[in-house]
Amino acid sequence: APRGLSAAARRRNPFSRLDNAPQRAATAPQPPAAAPAAGDPSAAPFWQFLEQACEEKPPRRAEPAEISDILSLSQDLHSPLAVPKAPSSPRQEFPADWSIKTRVLFVSSQPFTWAEHLKAQEEAQGFAQHCRATQTTLPQSVQEPRLCTELRCAFQQSLVYWLHPSLPWLPLFPRLGADRRMAGKPCPWAQDEALQQVLMSDWSVSFTSLYNLLRARLCPYFYVCAAQFSVLFRAAGLAGSAVPTAAIAPTTRGLRQAMRSEGIEFSLPLLEESRARKQKNSEENLETETTDGLGGGSSVEDVGEPAPSDDDDDGSFSWLEEMGVQEKVEKPDTISIQLRKEKHEVQVDHRAESLVLVRGSNTFTLLNFLISCRSLVAVAGPQAGLPPTLLAPVAFRGGTMQTLKARTVSGRARVQGGFEDAFSLEVLGPVLPHSLHALTLLLGPAQRGSFRALLSPHEPSAAFNAAPPQEDVQQDLPACGLHPKTLDQLSQSPTLGKSSIRLLEMKDFSYTWKA
C-alpha cells in the first residue's frame, strides 16, 4: 500500500488531505493526479497570497474556488485567521488611505460565492452603472448574497478603473523598480524617436484631459506613475484641502531644484514635521536637564545637526587672507557650499520624507512642467521612451477601461481546538482608494458584518498619506462618480502620516485597522 505524505511534504503543500491520510494508506493505489499547469495561480498554496507584491503572478478573472479539505496555516506563516493586535478602537469608518494597493486579500467565515460566475447581463450592468455613476445602496445584511443581482452588479462596478497608455503585453503598474519585470518585453518605440514623440503627444492630451476634469471637480483624483517618481493629483475638497493639490514622491534634490527654477512653490510636509518633532524633543530634553540641575547640556543626540547658516559662503574665508595662506588653501567651490547648505534636504532623497506638496494654481504650473520634464520618461533601460502610467477612477480622453482581477478560494483553516471553514477573495491591483472603500461597502452586508482584509501597498505611494494644511472645506463633488460614503471618507484629512493600512478588520459592522 502507498505510504502517506511525509511531514516535509505536508509542510510544502498546505492543501494536502491530512485528515484522510490513514484511510488512503489502507486502500488501493490511485492513479496520480494531473500536475497543475505551470504558472497556474490556483495551484499555489493559500498562504502564498501574502507574498510581496513585487512577485508577479499571471492575472485571472473571477472564477470559482478550488475546494480544499484542510488549509493548514501555522502561526509562523502569518495565518490571516490569527487575531491581530489592532491598535485602533472600533469605529464606523476607517481612515482614508491614499496609497495604491497591489493586492488585497479578504478573509471571512462566510463564502464569497456571490463574487463567482457573473452573468453577462450582470457584468454589462456593472459597467453601465460605472459609466453612468449610478450608486447602489444595499441593506445592512443581504440574506442570500449569491442570488442578489444588485450586489453582483455593484461588485463588477467596484472593480473598474481607467488606464493610459494601454499596452496589454506590458505591466504598467508599478513603474518604480519595474525594470526587471519589463526586461525582454517587446518595446518597438525604444529606438524610434518618431514613435516616442507620438506616444508622448498622445499621453500629454490624456494628462491634460484628466487635469481639466479635476479642476472642474468631475474627477476626484488621479495618479501619474513614472519610472522615477509618482504624482497624486487631488481635487479641491479632498484630503481636507480647499484647493487642488498635487503630491510627488519620492523626489530628489535635482527635481526639487528644477521645480523651483520653474517658479513652482511647494512644501516638504513630512520633512517639516520631522524637524518640528526634533525641535520639540530638543526643547523638552533641555528643560528636563535644566530642571535636574545638569546644566545646559548640548549633547542631545536626537536633535540632529543644526541647519546650515548664512555664514557658509565665500565671505567666511576672509580669515585665510588675514593669515596669509589664502593662496595655499583650496577653498570649496560654490556647488560644494550649496550642497552643505542643503545637506538635510539632500539626505531625504528617495525617501518618504522627500514628499513634495504643491497647492492651488501651482498645480497648473506643475502640469506644464511635467509635460516638458526630461526626467519624466526614462532614456535607457526597459522603460526607455515609455510615457508614465495614468490611473483614474473615471473616464478621460484616451483612457482605457480596465478591471481588477479577482478570484475566490475556500477551505478549512486550523485554529485552536480544531478546524473551521475559511473563505477568501483575492483582488489584484492596482487597487485605488475608491475601489478599496467600495469593496468594503459591499463586503459588510454580504459577509454579515464580519471580514478581514490583508493589504499589500505599493510602498512609495504610502507617503501620499501626509496631511496637507487644514482649511475650511466647502467644496462639493457630487458629480465625480464616487459613492457618497466613499467621497465622505476621502474628504477627510489623512491621519496615517507616511504609513498605510496593512490589516483591516470588520466585526459587527465596526472597523479596526493596523498600519
TrEMBL record:
Signal peptide (residue range): none
Stretches with biased composition (Acidic residues): 302-315
Source organism of the structure: Leucopsar rothschildi
Source taxon at top rank: Eukaryota
Origin organism lineage: Eukaryota, Metazoa, Chordata, Craniata, Vertebrata
Keywords: Developmental protein, Nucleus
Family: Belongs to the DONSON family.
The keyword Transcription regulation is annotated on this UniProt entry: no
Compartments where found: Nucleus
Region (Disordered): 1-42, 275-316
Protein name, per record: DONS protein
Ranges that cross the membrane: none
Cellular component annotations (GO), alphabetically ordered: nucleus
Main location: nucleus
Cited InterPro entries: Donson
